[in-house]
Amino acid sequence: MKFIVDRMYNRIARWLRMLGYDTILNEDFVDQDYIQLAKKDNRILITRDEDLKRRAEKLGIRVVTLDAPTIEERLIKLHKEVGLELAFSESTLSRCSVCNSEIRKIEMDEILDKISELTQLHYNEFWICKNAECDQIYWKGSHWTKMEETLNDCNEMIKLDNEKQNKN
């Protein structure tokens, strides 16, 4: 599953990338850019723009509008509408959340000059963006734990909602 996300959804784009989904976000795109790339690459378009949504749907492009206020509600809506997996998997750390390029594992001794001594003391597993212009480094720090908690909360809400629907 591939996505193209309009500039209003920067945060959801980062989440999708961290979950391993190829997600394009470009602040300079105009409506036609979104439509062309979504059509060409068979991407799901995420937008709030009703005019863009209507034009894309007329061309057979799958569109999701995320009008929910919280990241949890947005992720749940994507789960329900397109089957988004709300869990980190072995392949999760495959995309850079900043530039969407692939990332790869890297040994700590190769990046000692790019991470703090404190990080070196507490973590031993690292990934780096393959895009030399980006070079973003990742490790499973406290932010990772918070993201896992968010995903657990989402899955719990989905479970409760399913149980509620099954009772009705």
Helix and strand layout, with pairings?
Blueprint: E1 2-5, H1 10-18, E2 22-25, H2 31-41, E3 44-46, H3 50-58, E4 63-64, H4 71-82, E5 103-106, H5 117-122, E6 126-129, E7 137-138, H6 142-167
Parallel strand pairs: 1-2, 1-3, 3-4
Antiparallel strand pairs: 5-6, 6-7
What are the key terms here?
168 residues, alpha/beta, Rossmann fold, four-stranded parallel beta sheet, three-stranded antiparallel beta sheet, 6 helices, 7 strands
What do you see in this structure?
It is a single chain. The chain has a domain at 2-82: Nitrogenase molybdenum iron protein domain (Rossmann fold, 3-Layer(aba) Sandwich). 43% of the residues lie in helices and 14% in strands. The chain is built from 6 helices and 7 strands. The protein has helices at 10-18, 31-41, 50-58, 71-82, 117-122, 142-167, and strands at residues 2-5, 22-25, 44-46, 63-64, 103-106, 126-129, 137-138. Helix 4 packs across helix 6 (142-167). The chain is flat. The two termini are 32 Å apart. The model has no long low-confidence stretch (mean pLDDT 92).
Instruction: Please name the CATH architecture of one domain.
Output: 3-Layer(aba) Sandwich
CATH superfamily of one domain: Nitrogenase molybdenum iron protein domain
Average pLDDT works out at 92
Helical fraction equals 40-55%
Q: Helical element count?
A: 6
**What fraction strand?**
5-15%
Q: Quick one: biggest sheet?
A: 4 strands, parallel
CATH fold name of one domain: Rossmann fold
Quaternary state of the chains:
single chain
Shape: flat
